[in-house]
Every structure is written in C-alpha cells, then in structure tokens.
Amino acid sequence: LLTPLLPHDHHRNRGMRTRLGCLSHKSDSYNDFTAILPDKPNRALKRLSTEEATRWADSFDVLLSHKYGLAAFRAFLKTEFSEENLEFWLACEDFKKTRSAAKLASKAQRIFEEFIDVQAPREVNIDFQTRELTRRNMQEPSLSCFDQAQGKVHSLMEKDSYPRFLRSKIYTDLLSQTQRRLS
Fold first, then answer.
1. Range of the domain at 107
2. Is 7 within a domain?
C-alpha cells in the first residue's frame, strides 16, 4: 500500500505519513477532547458549565475566545486532519502581539514557511492570490502581513468546520456531560 519514500519525497510526504499513522486510532469522541485539555480533564469539566458550552454555538468567535472551546474545536479538527488552520490562526494572533522589531521578521518567516509556502509542512488552504500577496508582504514584514490569509482561514473554518463541530460527537458528548453533572 505505501510506496517506499525517495529522499526528495521525504519533506512532502512527512505530513502524509503522520496522517496515515493517526488514522488507525482516530475517533471523534469526547475522549479526544479530554486528552488535550489545558487542565486536568475532570477538574476542567467541573469548571465548564452547560451555559458556557452552549454559548460556543452562538458564534465562532465566542468559541475561539474560550479556553476549553478552543481545546474542543482543536480536538475536532484533529479528527478531520485540518488542525493546521487553527494552528495558523493562533500563530497569527500570537504574531500580532510581537513588540520587538528584531523578532518580527524571523517570526513572520517561520509562520510563512510552516503554513503558507507551497508544500509547507502544515500548509493552509488559501487561494493563490492570497498566498502571493502574503509572499509579497514578507519582503517587508509588518504586524498586518498575515491579515488577509488569516481572514481567509478564519472564514473557511467558520463556514466549514464550525458547523460540523457543532454537530460532532465531541461537542454533543461534552454538552451531555455538563448537563448530566447538573442533574
């Protein structure tokens, strides 16, 4: 099934190999979420109210702004093999807080090479024009050099992954867990 990798294919296939490796134990379940919680799962879930978890359905930005909402969404994206979109969005949020001009260019370069460049290890799904615009922005990196790419990835997640997340077993299980605690 798997063809042997030639040395020059190594970089391109690294992502593919790790994805195939993950397929064997992927499941879209509540346990995937608890496995990557920022705190100890039980403590975290005691703190998470049904009301909070329900609010994640109000808007995508509400979900992104909540620590556990973000963790649950990330767990869901992992099951769909599209977590690079969220990782890129988070990297951009972090990048915009860069205060040092010296760090700006190297941080920008790292994000570009990891997420934007063609065949980047975690290449995000953006159109050619946005990719080229971002490439041009890299000549003089500024805090806004990823704005358009970040915006595209945000709306892609909002239109595509977010509605599926709200219907996913991860989210519905999580809601029922918080409700069960109340009864």
1. 50-181
2. no
